[in-house]
Specification:
alpha+beta; Jelly Rolls; Arc Repressor Mutant, subunit A; three-stranded antiparallel beta sheet; 10 helices; 10 strands; 44% helix; disordered N terminus
């Protein structure tokens, strides 16, 4: 074992021994579907789908399907995780919390990505809170498995670095968007990022939660959503949003959505050649 490999292995073993957060072994409030192992070839997540076949064969028996209910906190700032999560039908929001209790979304992760991308980068923890913002399921994998393959497999390392670059682009673009664009444009961007990951026209979300993620007052969300509804782009009633005109939402959005989507498509196409 090389010195670098030994360091990664030791890091993984240390993280695996820490029981913090819902991605830790034995945590009582995640429903684990151990009786329904992931069928071979049913990857259901773009990062998993991009894995070379030998790596997928190693990971597939160790992936565990879990329920991810709305509002479930997967990681708090400063926590060490024993598992990473690959959402399949759920969406996870990375939130930053200020000392006075305010919050804002800094990235969104769905079936294109992974919760815990920062682990193989060597930092160990993240300053964000990762919370489920659209209920569904995900596939979790022990960090020791991920870190060992990240160290020994150039293909895994390349894939995760590409995804990290895409995620950083989203984070940076959201910072620009929050500073320079209108709430209506930001709401369109917010909706489009979720519609792409859900592959559905319907989003279940309260105005309070949307306001928390956008870092604005609830009344502002009410007004912006009302204008989008009046324009025939969405319907909104009792926490249920239906997208009526995807093209119209894209036209009403700022350039931030197109920048982020273009970068994800460029870095993580349907097929990656290693």
């Amino acid at each position: 074992m090389t010195h670098a490999h030994a360091n990664v292995h030791a890091q993984a073993q240390a993280q695996a021994s820490i029981q913090t957060g819902p991605l830790a072994d034995g945590h009582p409030d995640l429903t684990l579907h151990t009786s329904a192992r992931v069928a071979f070839g049913a990857r259901r997540n773009h990062l998993l789908d991009c894995l070379p076949e030998p790596v997928w064969q190693r990971w597939q028996p160790q992936l565990e399907a879990v329920d991810l209910p709305l509002g479930k906190v997967l990681c708090e700032p400063g926590e060490h995780l024993t598992h990473v999560m690959f959402p399949t039908t759920a969406i996870v929001s990375m939130m930053y919390l200020t000392d006075n209790g305010s919050s804002a979304e800094i990235a969104v992760i769905g079936n294109e990505g992974m919760v815990g991308t920062w682990l193989p980068m060597g930092g160990g923890t993240t300053p964000s809170r990762d919370v489920v913002c659209s209920a569904g399921r995900g596939l979790r994998l022990r960090t020791i498995v991920l870190l060992e393959d990240f160290n020994r497999s150039p293909a895994v390392r390349h894939l995760l670095l590409l995804y990290t670059q895409a995620l950083l682009t989203q984070t940076a673009q959201l910072a620009v968007c929050n500073r320079h664009h209108s709430l209506e444009q930001r709401l369109c961007n917010w909706l489009l990022l979720r519609l792409d990951r859900l592959k559905s026209k319907h989003i279940t979300m309260t105005q309070e939660l949307i306001a928390s993620m956008l870092g604005v007052r609830r009344e502002g969300v009410t007004e912006a959503a009302g204008r989008l509804q009046k324009a025939g782009l969405i319907t909104y009633r009792r926490g249920q949003i239906e997208a009526l005109d995807y093209t119209g939402l894209e036209a009403h959005s700022c350039e931030c959505y197109r920048v982020v989507k273009s970068e994800y498509d460029r870095l993580l196409p349907a097929e990656i050649v290693f």
